[in-house]
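Methods — Computational structure assignment.
A single polypeptide chain was analysed. Its primary sequence is given first, followed by the predicted tertiary structure written as structure tokens.
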Amino acid sequence: MKNFLIKSILNASLLASSLLLFHCNGQDTSEAVEVEAGISSGPFIMVSQKQFETMKMAWGSPRLEEFSDGLSVQGMVKVPVEGIQEISAFFGGYVSGLNKLEGESVRKGEVLFYLENPDFIRLQQDFLETTSQLGYLEAEYERQKTLYGEQISAQKIYLKAEADYQGSKAKAESLKRQLAMININADQLNPENIRSKVPVLSPIAGFVDGIHLVQGSFLAVGGKAMTIISKEHLHIELVIFEKDAANVHKGQRVQVSIPDLPGRTFEAEVFVVGQSINTERQINVHAHMLNEKEGEMLVPGMFLEAKLIQDPKEAWVVPVTAVVVSDGESYVLVQREKTENGFKLEKVVVKTDLESDGMIELLPNEVLDENTVILTRGGFNLLP
């Protein structure tokens, strides 16, 4: 009898515990279901205040503002033709004083290396000899001109004096120009400073991209010595497909981002749109950096991503998260009623167009205006 009583008490305790556990689980399940989905009735959906807070929903309204789409493209950093200089020689010579490294920066007018050749000595000698005779030839020419004018001297002698003077004058000017080509100032040249070694100067500021000779080698006339690249006017070369060509024009704004520089964007502007299509049905578009100082961070040949900003237009826009797609239709959820327990939402069919920077354009809809309160976040959980 005593054992039976103990068993009865234990069974009753277990039954009570099971009922309590079932009751608690039933409450949690109903609350979880309430959080996961609202109560739907036709075009309306009921959302409780707890569901709204738990799912971190948010309200907003459509805005009428200038809106533009962006065409995403890829490209690379390029150097314009005028920013690339091939260093060659007007006169051949042996190389000395070469101490530059590829990638090293150079200033405009900086000595890159020297060339040495006996021909340089003869060139300077010819110039000095020619200019030294010019004074005499000019004086003789003026004397014969006077004598001929007074009919004292024959015309033949006068013409010979004129030819000698003009010929020497032309030769001296020619030699002066040739000396300038090897960076010798003829006006400062005299017999005491004749030299066999002349400097080769950098015509632009930039950096050494390539060196094609070695110390002591002979650089022939017209030979390629070095390549200098300037970063002062870098431009962006973009590649667009044929179907997008009609949406690109000169002066269009471009947002540039570099994968290797996360979080940084640069502004550029289209200045040339290609007029021919390549074999891959693509067109090249060239854009200039608006802030050339920012271009110093770029390296020629660097790959980049860009967005060609389309011309803005006035449109109704909402956050992308405000538009919910269900059964092939796009909806926004409009707040129709607010109660103590929650909100009554109505599903309104909308048509969308352009999308950019987290916003999407709504085509004109007589149901929506700037005073309409819509769910801008969390609506995707409410529709199947």
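Note: The longest strand covers residues 329-338.
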